[in-house]
Amino acid sequence: MVVNKPPLGWNTWNTFGANINEQLIMESADAMIANGLKDAGYEYVVIDDIWALKERDENGRLVPDPEKFPHGMKYVADYIHSKGLKFGMYSCAGYLTCAGYPASYGYEWVDAKTFAEWEVDFLKYDFCFHPMTERADVLYKRMAIALANCGRDILLSACSWGSENTKQWIKETGAHMWRSTGDIFDSWASIKSLAQSQIVAQEYNGHGCFNDMDMLIVGMNGKGNVALTGCTTEEYRLHFSLWALLNSPLMIGCDIRDMTDETKSILLNKDVIAINQDELGAEPFFANNFKYEINNSRTENDPFYKSYPIDTPIIAKYLDGGDIAIGFFNFMDTDASVWNFTLTLDNLGLPLSSGKTIELHDLWTGKTLKTFNGTVRIDKVAPHDCRLFRAKVVDA
C-alpha cells in the first residue's frame, strides 16, 4: 500500500475520549456526508482508544465493548463503507493502550488478522507501555509487516510522538504517517508550541510517510476531551492553514454533527485543502529575508546548523503545475508589519533577471495581491493570524 497524499478524516479522541459508541460513529459518518466533508476529501472515520474490553477472548483476540458496540466492529465498518467512507481503529505498540486497555505487543499478527476481518482501513498505533528492552523501530516494524500480510490495505498511522528519534527510522518501518508531536489541546498555546516545533522538521516529510502534527482542534471551541481555553476564529484558521501547508494529515477532532458556520468555513475551504493534497507533495521551505537562531545547541560553523524565523515565518511550497503556495504566519501577540512580511521573489527562485513575477490569490478572502519591484509586501497581519496564498508565475 502506497500513500501519496496526507490522509483526511475524523477521529473521536479530541472531543469524545472514552464516550464513544456505535451510534456516535454512525451519526458522525452521516455528518461527514451531510456537511460536505466527504465531498471536500475527508474519508476516514476513526475510533480512538477505549473501545475494547479489558481482557482478550479465549483465542487471544481483542473484544469490542458490547455496551458501546453491541453489533461488533464489522457492523460499524459495513455502515461506514456503505457511505463511501473508510473505517479506522486504534491500538498500541505496548502491553496496554494509553488508557490501559489491551494493546498489540506480542499479538501483532493476531490483531492484524482481526482488523482485516473487521474490514478496517486505518490503524492509529500508539506508543504507551511498551517494553523498554525493545527498540522503537522494531515495535513498529512488527505491526507494519503484519498489516502488510493481513490480506487488506490498512494505512498505518504511527503515533510515537516523535520520541526515540522517530524521524530517523520511521520511513524504514513501512508506516504511512508518523506523529511528530505530543498531544494537541484546544488552546492557542498548544497550537503555537506544536507548530514552532515542527516547522523546522520538514525534511522528514513527504510521499509515502507524512509528518503528522496531531489532529485538528478547529471547531472545538473549548468543549470536549482535550478542551482548554478554546481558540479564536483567527487562531483556528492559522492552525488549519499551517497544518495544510506543512503536509500534515488533516484529521478533524471536533463534533462534526454540530459545527458552526465559522468551523465549516475553515474545514471546507477546498482551496486550502488542495494545497495539502497537491500531487507534487513537495517539502515546504522558509522564504523569509531574515533568519533568527532557534537552535542554541549548534554553531554557525556546523554544516547542519539552521536558523529560522519562528515567530513570523514565511513558508512556501512548490505545487504541481508550477504554482507556489505561500503562507505568512504571525505567532506574536502583536501585529506583524511589512518589516516582518516582505518577501523577495529571489527567495522563490524568481530573480528579476528571470522576467517573471507572481499573481497571488488569497485563499481565505479571495482577493488578489500584486508584487512590488520584485517583492511581496504584507502591510499588517494581526496577532495569531495568517495570510495564505496560491501564487501563479506570470510574465513580469
SSE inventory with pairings:
Layout: E1 8-11, H1 13-16, H2 22-34, H3 37-40, E2 44-46, H4 73-82, E3 86-92, H5 108-117, E4 122-126, H6 136-148, E5 155-158, H7 166-169, E6 177-179, E7 186-187, H8 188-198, E8 210-212, E9 227-230, H9 233-245, E10 250-252, H10 261-267, H11 270-276, E11 285-286, E12 314-318, E13 324-329, E14 336-337, E15 342-344, E16 356-362, E17 368-369, E18 375-377, E19 380-381, E20 386-395
Parallel strand pairs: 1-2, 1-10, 2-3, 3-4, 4-5, 5-6, 6-8, 7-9
Antiparallel strand pairs: 11-12, 12-13, 13-20, 14-19, 15-18, 16-17, 16-20
Helix pairs in contact: 2-4, 5-6, 9-10, 9-11
Fold and architecture overview:
This protein has 396 residues and is of the alpha/beta class. It is 24% helix and 20% strand. The protein has eleven helices and 20 strands. The strands form five sheets. The chain has an eight-stranded parallel sheet with strand order 8-6-5-4-3-2-1-10. The chain has a six-stranded antiparallel sheet with strand order 11-12-13-20-16-17, covered by helices on one side. Helix 4 (73-82) links the parallel strand 2 and strand 3 (86-92). Helix 9 (233-245) runs parallel beside helix 11 (270-276). The chain is globular and about 75 Å long.
Tell me briefly what this model is:
With 396 residues, this protein is an alpha/beta fold. It has helices spanning 13-16, 22-34, 37-40, 73-82, 108-117, 136-148, 166-169, 188-198, 233-245, 261-267, 270-276; strands at residues 8-11, 44-46, 86-92, 122-126, 155-158, 177-179, 186-187, 210-212, 227-230, 250-252, 285-286, 314-318, 324-329, 336-337, 342-344, 356-362, 368-369, 375-377, 380-381, 386-395.
